[in-house]
C-alpha cells in the first residue's frame, strides 16, 4: 500500500539535503538490523500506526525477507537533526518494492514490480522526495527488465502524474442472507462439499490455493508472504494478535481435494447481525458458489459483508433475489504503470486480430514513442516507429491512459469521451477497443 502527500518538487524548488539508501528488509542472526528497524518505525509513523515492538518487527522482517523486499529511505545528509528530534538514522521518507507476477491472460504471468510503503514525513513535504524515490526506482526496474510497475494506493490523486493508471476496481457488497441464500439453480452450488476447519489450516494452504487462483484469474497480481497470516487471522500490519472469533470453511472437489476456502468473522453492528469475509479464494466456479451457499446457511446472520468482491460477480446472477445483492462502494484498486511498451503489450492476451498505431506520451520517458501493434492469432508484435513525421499515429494517449487500458477495465471510447485519448482516425478507437477487449473482467484480490 502506498501513501504520500508530497507534491511535485518543481512546485516549490529547494535544495535537496537528502541521501537515498536502499537495502533489503531481512533478519540477520534472527534479529532485525537497526537500519531496518528505523525504516519500519518511519513507515508506521506515516500510516499512523503504533510504535512497533521487537516481536512485531521480527514478524515483519521474516515476512518481508520471504518476499525479497527491498526498501529505500531518504535520510537527512550532513544537515543534522534538531536536538531531541528523531536522528538522521530515521528516514524522512520511505519506499519499498518486491517483485511478483501479473496475470495478463491465457495463464501468462508477467513479472511485475510492486511498490509499497511510500510515505513522506509531514515536515519534509514539498521537497521533491517522492519524485526522487519514484524516478530512481522506476528507472532501475526498467533497467532490470521489468515492463510493468504496480501499486495499490491509499490516496487516488498522487500517482497519475508518475504514469500510473487505474487497472482494476473492487466492490464492497452486502449480501442479505436472512432466511437463507436462495439460488436460481441450487445444483450449481451443490458440487463437492464444504466443511469447517481450524483456521490455522488456511495459513498452511494459502500459498498453494492462491497460486491456483492466480494462474486462472485475469488481472490477478501476486500476494506477499504476509497474506497467509492475514487470511488466517494470525497477524496483520500493526498487530500480531490473532483474531479470536475468525472461522474457516474449506471446499472439497469431487476428488476430495481442497480447491477453495473462506475465512470470516462476525462484526459489531447494532441493528443487524453480520459476518465479514476476511479472505475468499476459489479455484472453480463450483467452489465459489458452494462457499457462498455455506455462508448463506449461517444461523442468526442477516448479511454477509465483503470488500473485495469482483465488479462482475457470478453470485449476483446466481441469486433468485438479485436485489439482495447490494454494492455499497466501488473503488479503484490495482494501479499499473507501463515501463516498457513493446514488452508489456507483447505479453498481453488478445481476443481479436488487427493492427493499430498509437503514440504514447511519458513525462519520465520510459514508455514514450510511436508503436505499431499487430495482433495475429491473439499474439501481438509491437514495433517502435520513427518519430520523424513519417508515421502518423491513429491514437494519442499518455502512459497513464495506456496503463488503464492495458487490462481492458476501461475502453478507449470512454477515455476519449473523458478527453484523455485523442484519435486522428475516427475508426481507430473502435479498432483499439476490439483489440484490447478483456478476455474476462479483470479482478485483483491482493492489497500491498
Describe the structure.
The structure is a single chain. The chain has eleven helices and 19 strands. The chain has helices at residues 34-46, 54-67, 129-143, 199-216, 227-232, 285-296, 314-318, 341-347, 399-405, 412-417, 428-435, and strands at 18-24, 70-76, 93-103, 109-120, 148-152, 165-166, 169-176, 193-197, 247-252, 258-267, 274-282, 303-309, 325-332, 334-338, 354-361, 369-376, 379-385, 395-398, 421-423. The N and C termini lie close together (5 Å). The model is unreliable at 6-14 (pLDDT under 50).
How is this fold's topology laid out?
Elements: E1 18-24, H1 34-46, H2 54-67, E2 70-76, E3 93-103, E4 109-120, H3 129-143, E5 148-152, E6 165-166, E7 169-176, E8 193-197, H4 199-216, H5 227-232, E9 247-252, E10 258-267, E11 274-282, H6 285-296, E12 303-309, H7 314-318, E13 325-332, E14 334-338, H8 341-347, E15 354-361, E16 369-376, E17 379-385, E18 395-398, H9 399-405, H10 412-417, E19 421-423, H11 428-435
Parallel strand pairs: 4-5, 11-12, 15-18
Antiparallel strand pairs: 1-2, 2-3, 3-4, 5-14, 6-14, 7-12, 7-13, 8-9, 9-10, 10-11, 15-16, 16-17, 18-19
Amino acid at each position: 500500500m502506498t501513501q504520500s502527500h508530497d507534491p511535485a518538487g518543481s512546485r516549490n524548488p529547494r535544495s535537496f539535503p537528502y541521501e537515498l539508501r536502499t537495502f533489503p528488509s531481512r533478519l540477520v542472526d534472527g534479529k532485525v538490523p537497526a537500519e531496518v528497524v528505523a525504516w519500519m518505525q518511519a513507515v508506521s509513523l506515516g500510516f499512523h500506526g503504533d510504535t512497533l515492538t521487537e516481536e512485531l518487527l521480527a514478524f515483519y522482517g521474516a515476512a518481508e525477507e520471504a518476499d525479497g523486499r527491498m526498501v529505500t529511505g531518504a535520510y537527512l545528509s550532513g544537515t543534522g537533526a534538531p536536538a531531541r528530534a528523531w536522528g538522521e538514522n530515521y528516514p524522512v521518507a520511505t519506499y519499498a518494492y518486491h517483485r511478483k507476477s501479473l496475470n495478463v491472460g491465457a495463464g501468462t504471468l508477467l513479472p511485475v514490480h510492486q511498490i509499497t510503503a511510500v510515505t513522506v514525513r509531514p515536515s519534509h513535504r514539498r521537497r521533491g522526495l517522492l519524485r526522487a524515490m519514484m524516478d530512481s526506482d522506476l528507472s532501475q526496474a526498467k533497467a532490470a527488465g521489468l515492463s510493468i510497475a504496480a501499486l495499490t494506493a491509499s490516496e487516488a490523486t498522487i500517482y497519475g502524474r508518475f504514469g500510473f493508471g487505474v487497472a482494476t476496481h473492487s466492490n464492497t457488497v452486502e449480501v442479505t442472507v436472512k432466511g437463507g441464500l436462495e439460488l436460481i439453480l441450487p445444483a450449481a452450488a451443490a458440487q463437492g462439499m464444504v466443511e469447517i476447519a481450524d483456521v490455522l489450516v488456511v495459513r498452511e494452504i494459502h500459498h498453494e490455493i492462491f497460486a491456483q487462483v492466480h494462474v486462472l484469474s485475469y488481472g490477478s497480481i501476486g500476494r506477499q508472504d504476509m497474506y497467509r497470516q492475514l487470511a488466517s487471522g494470525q497477524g496483520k500490519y500493526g498487530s500480531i494478535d490473532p483474531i479470536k472469533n475468525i472461522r474457516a470453511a474449506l471446499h472439497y472437489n469431487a476428488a476430495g481435494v481442497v480447491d477453495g476456502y473462506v475465512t470470516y468473522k462476525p462484526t459489531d453492528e447494532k441493528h443487524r447481525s453480520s459476518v465479514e469475509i476476511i479472505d475468499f479464494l476459489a479455484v472453480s466456479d463450483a467452489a465459489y458458489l458452494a462457499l457462498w451457499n455455506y455462508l448463506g446457511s449461517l444461523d442468526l446472520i442477516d448479511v454477509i459483508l465483503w470488500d473485495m468482491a469482483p465488479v462482475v460477480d457470478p453470485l449476483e446472477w446466481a441469486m433468485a433475489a438479485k436485489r439482495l445483492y447490494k454494492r455499497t462502494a466501488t473503488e479503484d484498486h490495482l494501479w499499473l504503470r507501463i515501463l516498457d511498451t513493446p514488452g508489456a503489450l507483447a505479453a498481453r492476451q488478445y481476443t481479436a486480430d488487427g493492427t493499430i498505431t498509437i503514440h504514447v506520451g511519458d513525462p519520465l520517458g520510459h514508455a514514450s514513442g510511436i508503436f505499431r501493434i499487430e495482433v495475429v492469432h491473439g499474439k501481438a508484435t509491437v514495433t517502435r516507429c520513427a518519430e520523424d513525421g513519417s508515421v502518423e499515429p491513429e491514437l494519442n494517449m499518455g502512459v497513464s491512459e495506456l496503463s488503464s487500458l492495458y487490462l481492458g477495465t476501461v475502453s478507449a471510447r470512454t477515455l476519449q469521451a473523458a478527453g484523455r485519448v485523442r484519435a486522428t482516425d475516427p475508426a481507430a478507437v473502435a479498432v483499439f477497443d476490439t483489440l484490447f477487449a478483456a478476455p474476462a473482467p479483470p479482478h485483483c484480490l491482493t492489497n500491498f
